[in-house]
Amino acid sequence: MSLRFRSLTTRAAVIVTAGALALTGAVIATAGPAAAADPTWQTVFRDDFTGSGLPDPNKWILTQGTSYPGGPDAFGTGEIETMTNRPENVDVRNGNLYITPQRDSAGRWTSARVESAASNYRPPAGGVMHVESRLQLPNVTGSEALGYWPAFWMLGGPYRQDRWSWPAIGEFDIMENVQGLNWTYNVLHCGVWAGGPCNEQEGINNGVNNAGAPCKVTTCQAGMHTYGLEWDDSGPVEQLRWYLDGELTFTVNANQVPAATWNSLADHAGYFIILNVAMGGAFPNKLGGGPNAGTKPGVPMVVDYVEVKYAGGSGTPTTSTPVTSTPTTSTPTTSTPTTSTPVTSTPTTSTPATPPTGGSASPSALRVSGSTSDSLTLSWQGSAGASYEVLRSGIRIATVTGTSYTDRGLFPNTPYVYSIRGGGVTTPELTATLNGASASTSTAAPTSGPTTEPTAGPTTGPVSGGPSGLKVTGTTGSTITLGWAGSAGASYDVLRSGIRIATVTGTSFTDVGLFANTPYVYSIRGNGTTTPELTARIG
């Protein structure tokens, strides 16, 4: 999966790799030597996706929308889906992560893009990094698979600072697949935007006759397979190696490209991991197009685990220890992991917990019972033995047994909207805001119809040219349009729950992919001024 428009038209090419003769076809390098036998591996990251609900926010970012703020439209690939954090698009259950494309009655597609919080994965100096996932591709083939584009890949961390730094900062497509075909496509993207030493925007890849390495015994769609990448810095020439079920499928050596090209992809803090299922775009278009009316929605990519481990080396290996707060994806750095915007989607449909004998499972009297500088502890009345769903901005973030829950990794001066569901009852929403190590709260009953609710929030002193008068100027069934007073030529940050989701020139912004009866908390920042927060709902 990449930020390019791929062509799989074959062309003559001969590339020599270490100890092997190259093949002809799309730009390709042949398998080279494997890693040293039985290295001593140190696991620096692993997620087996235990529990339920959304992926662990300390490990994963859920990038939303149709592009990165300030980056190319449609993620640079022409894909047509909107990425969300809705449980029907992304959830953890039964020990797996599910990423599920969905299509609504109007034909609009949604899916999910799950990124590692850490963006510094690279081998220790003189050592080896191995990145692996065991997963099952969406189990759909033929005409029903048209437009499906699942991928497991890595992107250079500097991209989180500069959304136009691709492909120089590097991209490793560990597994890429389209149209339900039984193969894994391996690609290195590097160099310049078009042509160059890496033959962009095809990249250096294992594609021959419009196919990659096939899955054996069971197809890639019919069962779980492991997909891996090794970056080996232990020899005289750095090497990238791709694996399918432990078998080497593709190799690229550093000396296949100019030294400056390799240094550009290798000499930075490292890479972040991405798992996603795109719909449509340049790659599917090359192999039959889609999606169309016959494409089957609701077929997930199922991920058993993701693991990063290191071996050897004289340097200090990087680790995946994430920050404890939840920063935005729009202003990241290469050294501090980023996370997604706060959860704002529609809750899943669930069966209320059955009240245990001798007590009522219906929750009531939701309150904040404790706080730290980055956490809020919620408590409520109910049964200590009952199961409750904790909702934040209308979406389930946890299921607990008992009558308390601590939400961690929060920002100060940012409103978080909670409710508790169980026994067929959902409490009124409680808005809590951290102020240092203490918290302020307010409770409001649900409202109906499009509404805007001013809420107390931090604001800086007025500065000439700063935004003011924030209001909702329009809504649809899935959008809210904001307007404010300011300079038509000025640049403003749009904040949702205190997190920047866009930077615009002008005095209006439309937030898309929203859900009814869900509170969205907005403010506008510019020229040293931040407006008071405005809470808006649809329906």
UniProtKB/TrEMBL annotation:
<feature type="compositionally biased region" description="Polar residues">
    <location>
        <begin position="369"/>
        <end position="379"/>
    </location>
</feature>
<dbReference type="InterPro" id="IPR000757">
    <property type="entry name" value="Beta-glucanase-like"/>
</dbReference>
<keyword id="KW-0624">Polysaccharide degradation</keyword>
<feature type="region of interest" description="Disordered">
    <location>
        <begin position="313"/>
        <end position="379"/>
    </location>
</feature>
<comment type="similarity">
    <text>Belongs to the glycosyl hydrolase 16 family.</text>
</comment>
<dbReference type="InterPro" id="IPR013320">
    <property type="entry name" value="ConA-like_dom_sf"/>
</dbReference>
<keyword id="KW-0119">Carbohydrate metabolism</keyword>
<dbReference type="GO" id="GO:0004553">
    <property type="term" value="F:hydrolase activity, hydrolyzing O-glycosyl compounds"/>
</dbReference>
<feature type="compositionally biased region" description="Low complexity">
    <location>
        <begin position="437"/>
        <end position="462"/>
    </location>
</feature>
<dbReference type="InterPro" id="IPR006311">
    <property type="entry name" value="TAT_signal"/>
</dbReference>
<feature type="signal peptide">
    <location>
        <begin position="1"/>
        <end position="36"/>
    </location>
</feature>
<keyword id="KW-0326">Glycosidase</keyword>
<dbReference type="InterPro" id="IPR013783">
    <property type="entry name" value="Ig-like_fold"/>
</dbReference>
<dbReference type="InterPro" id="IPR036116">
    <property type="entry name" value="FN3_sf"/>
</dbReference>
<protein>
    <submittedName>
        <fullName>Glycoside hydrolase family 16</fullName>
    </submittedName>
</protein>
<feature type="region of interest" description="Disordered">
    <location>
        <begin position="437"/>
        <end position="469"/>
    </location>
</feature>
<feature type="compositionally biased region" description="Low complexity">
    <location>
        <begin position="316"/>
        <end position="364"/>
    </location>
</feature>
<keyword id="KW-0732">Signal</keyword>
<feature type="domain" description="GH16">
    <location>
        <begin position="47"/>
        <end position="314"/>
    </location>
</feature>
<dbReference type="GO" id="GO:0000272">
    <property type="term" value="P:polysaccharide catabolic process"/>
</dbReference>
<dbReference type="InterPro" id="IPR050546">
    <property type="entry name" value="Glycosyl_Hydrlase_16"/>
</dbReference>
<keyword id="KW-0378">Hydrolase</keyword>
<feature type="domain" description="Fibronectin type-III">
    <location>
        <begin position="362"/>
        <end position="450"/>
    </location>
</feature>
<dbReference type="InterPro" id="IPR003961">
    <property type="entry name" value="FN3_dom"/>
</dbReference>
